[in-house]
Predict the structure.
Amino acid sequence: MEENKKFKLVSSKKTRYLLPNILTLGGVCLGISSIKFSIDGNFSLAVTLILFAAILDALDGRIARLIKGTSEFGKELDSLTDFVSFGIAPVFILYFWELNNYGKLGWAITLIYSVCCVLRLARFNLTKIEEAQEWKNNFFEGIPSPAGGLLILMPLIYELTNLDIGLDIKKFTPYLTVLIAVLLVSKIPTLALKKISISPKTTVFLLLGIGIVFIALLFYTLETLLVFGLIYLLSIPFSIILFNKKNKKELKKISDDSHEDIL
């Protein structure tokens, strides 16, 4: 008698690919849902969903590498998710909040940001780093799309926090959106921190810091996002200096090695 074949969504050897892709698809749902809530005028929830989408985006790749569940399908799915969740959703939230008041110009800014985001993702997918330049994995070329999606929302986040510094931040929305769009497709190095070594002695302090961040996000979500956005913008000049310093060091090392080979 033939054994009954059990229904399987994927083969037992490939089940490890499911979890990262499920997290990625969750990010798509959060991004699309944020647009719906922004149409309803619930901008606070819309921003929060973009934050959750960014957290899932940070987790899916790391979990995939941890459980050896990386795949070409997952890579392409992740890029498509990033475009929806950080290339379309955030700028649409801004459009329904403020950019629609600028008429055709507001819509043009919306399109410019989305186009820059898709170009940035396409370039990222084609970027190959040689083994000799492995240190470049700690840097992105331009601002990554999740960071860009949160950064353009800073005027809205500021408005939702009810803080008052005497400036009408809402007026800076179109200028900030265009600036971040340019930074997305720029070649300015920004910190990625994909491969960093942590001393066992500092692990406890790192975990404490992560705990404090989660508590801050839990009780002061919008204020914490605003602070993180400002810190990230201020870190860009530091990233450029660090990248150039590391690049000069590597070039000098290659030059010295070539000189030794000649001798």
